[in-house]
Amino acid sequence: MEEFFENELVEKFEAMVENNDEFYFETEEYEEIIIYYLEMGDISFADMATKYGLKIHPNSLDLKIKQFEVLLELEKYSEAKELMTELKESCMDHTDFLVCCAKYYSNLGNPRRSIEYCEKGLELEEEENFLHNFIADEFVNLEDPFNALKHYKLALNFDPQDEYSLENVMFCYNQLKRSDEAIEFLNGYLDKFAFSETAWYEYGQFYFNKKKYEEAIKGFDYLLAINPQSVGVYANKAACYEAMGEWLKAVEVYEEMLALEYTKSFTFYKIGLCYKENKQPVLALNSFQKSLRDDPQFYLSMMEQSYVYEEMGGMKEALHFAKEAVSLNEGNLDYQKRLAFLYIEGGKFEESLACLKRLVDFEPTRFYNWYAYSEVLMLIGEFEEAVTVLIAATKMHNRAELFYQLSNCYFQLNNTRKGRSVLAKALELDPQLLEDMQQKYPFLKDEVDKVKTKKK
Known about the structure:
This protein is 79% helix and 0% strand. The chain is built from 28 helices and no strands. InterPro entries: TPR-like_helical_dom_sf, TPR_2, TPR_rpt, Ycf3. TPR repeats lie at residues 197-230, 265-298, 400-433.
């Protein structure tokens, strides 16, 4: 890898460009330089190298094919098509050219034409693994997992340890819902390549998805025996224990993970969740606090502490940590709802209004956001503001509850005419709610008979 980054040809080429010199490079050398830049994703320099190369070797088919590849990377499809037409007669026996043609049609959304060029490439008996993967990918684009599976398997024949092919074989089996064949294939593969990390990972995932967690753990354990540094595999193994309700075993696995991790906040958070599920709130709080020591901005642990403190009856602490979590993630509407709830539970109605307003602003289609917002406004005596909110709410939701609320506001503001008009609308929409609403809003008891009499 170090040799790749310290490419002498590339250094010489860049020195030439920088100093405005003119060095001579062979065609093959320019190819190597262009490939380097393409591999590095530096398309502008690949383009520059192609132009320099063709200036010295204008008739080089190999450099023109590289130019074709660069044009595709630059998404200059008109120029790419012109060059493809120019090269077609003389380059049909060049695998790289056929691959570029396949990429051209793939990029333009014509997978069948792309497959045709890949099949022509296979006749040259070069790059078979790559070409079969390419064809398989195009069949995936065509939503044809049956043929995709066939070509991913053929790709594996040419490179049995190609992780990409193996992963996609399992993906296709899953798409085809052929689980028996999938595990038969995977077991056969593991018989030949017992130390394949990808295969054992797929084995574990296969059984995890089947909810056969003990068998999944077996697969993950084999993988960890091969590579004990696979941090993500510990997480998968722990997830199996969590799915089985074996919370303390999951904790043991997460604790093994901690020894391998540089950033530990998420793992401490997961340990805290396990202790919480296992009804061990003190240990849960301890883990969430460790998570926050590792990353003071980790709002997930902030909010989980709020839940635990609420369960323990520590409402003051629950509110504190909910506020902290919201301050770190204001856009999370679930957090805003929770904070509003805790404010209301603690009788801090005015403090809840900012959360409730954010909810109606960002989720106007949710009826209960409006209902709660207007209810709190009425509780603190802000009836005029409640009227404004409720009028906006009734434009979004033609619900009787809102009209009962609005009528109460008008009666509180001594606007009897509007109060009775809106109460009539509420009764029309849902008279069954009247008894509950009369208990909440005593003004309605005196007015409802007058409204009903007027209607008669």
